[in-house]
């Protein structure tokens, strides 16, 4: 088990492209940290630098007390689960799991015992003599997990491990991975582009955008107090509603017709971005805000109403018991659940 | 899957006919003729032939010279196959490590493949020239009195070197594409599991190359046995005398120089059986070959 420290870690490619801007993060022992962001945001590059599969251009990376910048991947005492599992196709499940141990000079008895233990945890006991090609996607995923846990690493690295599974299996594996990680108490870094995975699995989330860390925080911090419009739009489905508004005489005037009697942020700008989470908005009200509903999306547990508010697109989420129909609907914008962002920089005000 | 079909039977027949004719005229007919004439003893001047049954075959099996050529052919095949595969694999692994230069590297190595075997033989002749061949000089520098065309071992060495040189590009291309088709993440997983590069090669890379390597093994055996005729012919300068020759070359020498068509045909039939055995072996193993998907 180990604490992982990234100190101004940066990645620049020979062609000048800066894949990861200087990034400083401390991952406490036993925590599961999720790196999340759209494709090309540098999350995989960051993970691969921690694994030692990519060189670190600048900065220092420590796993435990040691700086590991120039250590071989095999010497970092890590285990990685790849997106396509990266199992050795010519080896049996047992050999796949034991290969790393064998190369560290473990005795045959020790390997057998650890592989059997991992197989028991992951319900792979019946498949130890099969080859990866004879397994289903979910089973391969388990073998990849098994290969990681038999090594007893200080650090688990997950590179979008669930994105090749179907939705149902993905939800199940998500819970299993999280439970396993908590039971073993191994520090983990988990890369995903799926905000649901990030929210549900993480102790802490690091949101990346264009090689830059947008925000680091617990899932609720990220959700409740997004540091930027990017985070507000990326985390949460449907994303937070963001609207242009003007600050006039100590009140906020949404572009279009709707006027709000909200206390404006104490910043010297005359325009501001106002954000509301779709589930914070209530149906019904005094008619000061009217949502022009265009589409009703039925999700079973709740419904999504998509439309426009004062000419700007706006979505709200309502409970399944509330009536929802296309057309103008009065809504109530909650005064205490409002987010303000800088109109140009997009930072939280 | 969608199946397309012909409406009449004549169109497919007409389309297949040219190919079938070529196979019949250039392969089956000569083969049948060789089988037939292997049972006859031909008059050297072409005035007729006598049926001798299996005498041509029994003569061959008792012939010391034939046994010697067969033994040489086996050694030659083993050496050429081994070295052309091993060197090509080494080059491919090194080229694969530097993907950036691989394209240039590949093109340069492919050029050799475009050289016709007799031309390769001629180039070999220049390299091994008695008076100013660079390789001859190198061997002499190390104290070996190298004599191409006069000394059995010298000629044999030259034959192996030229044949290997000629075959490396083909093997290289197959090995390189084989290496490049190994998923990157599998190699990275190995990088995390094993710190030794040699260990990773033998434990992960080589087994994944095995299907390619096996295919190439068969191709190379066939090449060494049959396709090196031009190289052998140039290097021994049509004077087999004291020089090593392969079985295929002996068929040619005995049949067209020695005018022993019956004996030569018997040799051809033996070679045909050899090819047949190789082919069956190949198909059996390829069928059982593991597909890594």
Automatic annotation (TrEMBL), chain A:
Q: Which organism is it from?
A: Tritonibacter horizontis
Pfam families for this protein: ABC_tran (PF00005), OB_MalK (PF17912)
A Gene Ontology CC term for this entry?
A: ATP-binding cassette (ABC) transporter complex, substrate-binding subunit-containing
Statement: the UniProt record of this protein carries the keyword Ligase: no
The top of its lineage is:
Bacteria, Pseudomonadati, Pseudomonadota, Alphaproteobacteria, Rhodobacterales
**SMART domains documented for this protein:** AAA
Matching entries from Gene3D superfamilies are given as: 2.40.50.100, Nucleic acid-binding proteins, P-loop containing nucleotide triphosphate hydrolases
Give this protein's Gene Ontology molecular function annotations.
ABC-type transporter activity; ATP binding; ATP hydrolysis activity
Enzyme nomenclature, EC number = 3.6.3.20
Encoding gene, per UniProt annotation: ugpC_1
Question: Which SUPFAM superfamilies does the record associate with it?
Answer: MOP-like, P-loop containing nucleoside triphosphate hydrolases
What's the superkingdom here? Answer: Bacteria
Q: What is this protein called?
A: sn-glycerol-3-phosphate import ATP-binding protein UgpC
Where does the ABC transporter domain start and stop, copy by copy? 4-235
PANTHER family xref list: MALTODEXTRIN IMPORT ATP-BINDING PROTEIN MSMX (PTHR43875), SN-GLYCEROL-3-PHOSPHATE IMPORT ATP-BINDING PROTEIN UGPC (PTHR43875:SF12)
**What does the sequence similarity comment in the record state about its family?**
Belongs to the ABC transporter superfamily.
Q: Which UniProt keywords apply?
A: ATP-binding, Cell inner membrane, Cell membrane, Hydrolase, Membrane, Nucleotide-binding, Sugar transport, Translocase, Transport
Q: Name one GO biological process term.
A: glycerol-3-phosphate transmembrane transport
From TrEMBL, chain B:
Q: Where in the cell is it found?
A: Cell inner membrane; Cell membrane
**Would the keyword Cell membrane be found if you checked this record's keyword annotation?**
yes
Q: What GO cellular component is one of the record's annotations?
A: plasma membrane
- Give the GO terms filed under biological process for this record: transmembrane transport
- Keyword Hydrolase appears in the UniProt entry: no
Q: Which Pfam families did the record assign?
A: BPD_transp_1
Q: Which PROSITE patterns does the UniProt entry name for this protein? A: ABC_TM1 (PS50928)
| Keywords linked to the UniProt accession | Cell inner membrane, Cell membrane, Membrane, Transmembrane, Transmembrane helix, Transport
Q: Where is the ABC transmembrane type-1 domain?
A: 74-282
Topology in membrane: Multi-pass membrane protein
- Segments spanning the bilayer are 9-29, 74-93, 105-128, 156-179, 200-226, 266-286
- What is annotated about its quaternary structure and interactions? The complex is composed of two ATP-binding proteins (UgpC), two transmembrane proteins (UgpA and UgpE) and a solute-binding protein (UgpB).
Entry similarity comment: Belongs to the binding-protein-dependent transport system permease family.
Q: What does this protein do?
A: Part of the ABC transporter complex UgpBAEC involved in sn-glycerol-3-phosphate (G3P) import. Probably responsible for the translocation of the substrate across the membrane.
| Name this protein carries in UniProt | sn-glycerol-3-phosphate transport system permease protein UgpA
Q: Which organism is it from?
A: Tritonibacter horizontis
As recorded in Swiss-Prot or TrEMBL, the protein's gene is named: ugpA
